[in-house]
Amino acid sequence: MITTAALTALITSLAHKGFESAFEKAGEKISEGAINWLKSLLYKDNSPKKALKELQENPEKEEKQLIVKSIIENSIEDNATNLNYLREIIEILPKNQNHITNYKNINTGQIKTRGGDVNIGDKYDK
């Protein structure tokens, strides 16, 4: 069963990263059939279709996300094999994705100080 959250995560990844970047690290693990299926829904003549283009221009707009979600769901209704492709993509895509925008002083990685001090952000003198 595909959850709405998993499908939304895929759509958000496509919106923020673009099609190629969303699959660059997982590309070898996802079958060509799955990638071709999803690409056929969102591209025509190697250019993003209107739905994907508008989603990428306004990735946070729920209306644009719902349009792409509907395209994917309609494809699955038309052909049950496509559900297997969607499952494959969702299982392999990275689960932890950080989308941080318009903020400063954020660390998303691990800091190893080896006993030293770490300051993130503006330096405040005492």
Features:
elongated, 126 residues, mainly alpha, 2 strands, 53% helix, two-stranded antiparallel sheet
Percent of residues in helices = 40-55%
- Biggest sheet: strands side by side, in what order? 1-2
How large is the count of helical segments? 6
Main sheet properties: 2 strands, antiparallel
Determine the N-to-C terminus distance: 56 Å
Shape: elongated
Radius of gyration: 18 Å
Strand-residue proportion = under 5%
| Sequence stretches where pLDDT stays below 50 over 5 or more residues | none
Descriptive notes:
This protein is mainly alpha-helical and 126 residues long. It contains 6 helices and 2 strands. It has helices at 4-17, 19-23, 32-42, 50-57, 62-78, 81-92; strands at residues 43-44, 47-48. Strands 1-2 form a two-stranded antiparallel ribbon. A hairpin with a 2-residue loop joins strand 1 and strand 2 (47-48). Helix 3 packs across helix 6 (81-92). It is elongated and about 65 Å long. The model has no long low-confidence stretch (mean pLDDT 81).
Précis, in short:
With about 130 residues, the protein is mainly alpha-helical. It is about 55% helix and about 5% strand. The longest helix has 17 residues, at about 60-80.
Topology:
Elements lengths: L3 H14 L1 H5 L8 H11 E2 L2 E2 L1 H8 L4 H17 L2 H12 L34
Antiparallel strand pairs: 1-2
Helix pairs in contact: 1-4, 3-6, 4-5
